[in-house]
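Record 1 of the preview.
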Amino acid sequence: ASLRRLASELSMRWVRTRAVAWGSGALVEHNEVPQPPQPGAGVEGEVWPRPLVSPPLQVATIEPRDGKHTGTLLYLHPFAAGVAQFLAHEDMYAMDGIRMVLPQAPRLPGKQPGGWPAVLSWYDMVPESEEPTGGLAGLEEIERRLREVLEIEAGALGEAGAGRLAVGGLGQGGSLALHVALRSPTPLAGVVVIDSPLLECTPSIGPRQLTAHCFFTDDGDGRTPSASRRRSSVERLRPHHDVTSLVFDSEGLSCSPGGRRVVARTEANWLQMACKV
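->
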């Protein structure tokens, strides 16, 4: 188990990691290693039963800068990006008292928006849209896997864990973070998202009032589809939740394979601003 964790950590730091596949002895990428057979009867003709659920998400962490763990931020990376970008700037993202937990999205096969053959993505998306294929049902599995991570982190914080546990994300990751926060049966300290619209399938009313910090970059005249979705998201949330919405100019943007994204320093500053509130 410790070797698997080490291999996962190396993979998320862009180190190519290979392993000997169980049974065949073939040399394969670490994240493609099949698991050994489990006890139980399988479908006729199969060597072992198919897994009923997906494996736990790979998770990296940035520990508190001052060495005192008093709160946790579960933060989801944007489409196609992965967590290596955060680990490469660990000193920049580290915060006093806050443990930053960084799950990595699964690598989804098949054609993805933008012509990607396979890409790190939190969910399959409708072409030319940020909405999940299948609507609410298309998010059930990844939501379940993220709740597993939330439960572990809440337990690590002790009895008052839920009150010191927040979620957040950038782009697609932030949209999913809002979805998980609004549907979470466990109370959360809040949610912080950057350039992340509320998905159409996400209910705006959750089990309880949510504290949300929404950061957006100004894309010009405010009449673009993304600006319209931004306004619509805030308007849907405000009647039911405590929402702080801040708009900044586009000087803090850079280009990446997955599209525009906030540069590390700007993103880190915004996260620290939200976590201090």
